[in-house]
Write a structure and sequence with these properties.
Strand 2 and strand 3 form a beta hairpin. A seven-stranded mixed sheet has the order 1-2-3-4-5-7-6, sandwiched between helices. It contains seven helices and seven strands; from the N terminus they run βαααββααβαβαββ. The radius of gyration is 16 Å and the shape is globular. It has one domain: Aminopeptidase. The relative contact order is 0.17. The protein is an alpha+beta fold and 196 residues long.
Length: 196
């Protein structure tokens, strides 16, 4: 039997390492690659885009990566701000301009499901494709959801890959909608109610 993966709490000092893992993990993500279809452009801009989206989560106390840099989960606690300006700048620099209008509409629709009440937000979870299918995503969720449940709060995420929806459902997340525009992939906003 394979031993459980060793999870390491990610801190601000780990931000660079964590972002490298995220770039590897999202190289085949349907939504990310729809927005950045050119592989050279992806490799040039993905780290900046993903860092703007979730890098500051390492400033808080509930993000983890797997020993050997195999996977990562980044959480933003209630009230912690996203860097909207950095996200807009990174998207403008890296995303395919022909996708931007549809992407903005999809993201706006997804955002409309974001809870207004205090909640934990999961902007990024990913496993390097070389290590997918080994239960590492489940291990990351199991460990990181302990803090969410200890707070007695709901959690929210947007799944950019329909293949991952069942994983999230096994951990208590419920799909709220399927958001799609033009030829965009489906985004699934998901809410995990307070676990009793």
């Amino acid at each position: 039997m394979q031993s459980p993966p060793k999870l390491i709490k990610a801190t601000a000092q780990d931000r660079e390492t964590v972002m490298d893992i995220v770039v590897a993990a999202f190289i085949a993500d349907p939504m990310v690659r729809w927005m950045i279809p050119d592989p050279s452009n992806y490799l040039q801009h993905a780290k900046t885009m993903m860092d703007a989206f979730g890098g500051n989560c390492t400033d808080y106390n509930n993000s983890f990566y797997i020993e050997g840099d195999k996977g990562v989960v980044l959480w933003r606690p209630p009230g912690a701000p996203a860097d909207e300006e950095a996200m807009e700048a990174a998207m403008g620099a890296g995303a395919d301009p022909s996708m931007m209008e549809d992407a903005a509409i999809v993201m706006g629709e997804v955002q409309s499901y974001h809870p207004e009440e205090p909640h934990w937000y999961l902007p990024i979870i990913g496993v390097d494709p070389a290590w997918q299918g080994m239960g590492l995503g489940a291990a990351l969720l199991r460990e990181s959801l302990k803090a969410v449940d200890a707070d007695g709060l709901p959690a929210f995420l947007e799944s950019s890959n329909p293949a991952n929806v069942s994983l999230y459902m096994r951990h208590g997340f419920e799909p709220l909608a399927q958001c799609q525009r033009g030829n965009s992939p489906i985004m699934t906003p998901m809410l995990r109610p307070v676990q009793k």
